[in-house]
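Task card 7
Instruction: Convert sequence to structure tokens.
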Amino acid sequence: MPYTSGSDRAEGLTSFPHANSSKAVLVVYDSPDSKRIIEPAGVLADVFAWE
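Output:
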């Protein structure tokens, strides 16, 4: 999983339906990196698919 020194520490995980895979996980981060922040109140998370 992505990790940046001082940010992007995985905080929450859950199974998540994904269009291209029957198995996927949604990951949200504590202290998201500034590249993940969408003003005024949004943040990007990650979805990882696996087989």
